[in-house]
Amino acid sequence: MLFSASCKRHKLNKTVIPQDSTQLAVIDTLSSKPTDSLHEASPNSDELKLSVEEIDFSYLTSRSKVSFKSKDQNIDNANVNIRIKKDSVIWFNVKVVTFDVARGLFTQNGITILDMFHKEYYQFPYDTLSKKFGTTLSFDLIQSLVIGNMPIKKRPKDKVSKEPDFFLLRQSEGKILLDNYIGEKNRKLKKLKVEEPAVNNSLTMEYDEFTQLNNFLFPYSSLIELNQSQAGQLYQTLIQIKHQKVELPDEPLTFPFTIPTNYQRKN
Question: How many beta carbons lie within 10 A of that of residue 72, not counting itself?
Answer without folding.
Answer: 9
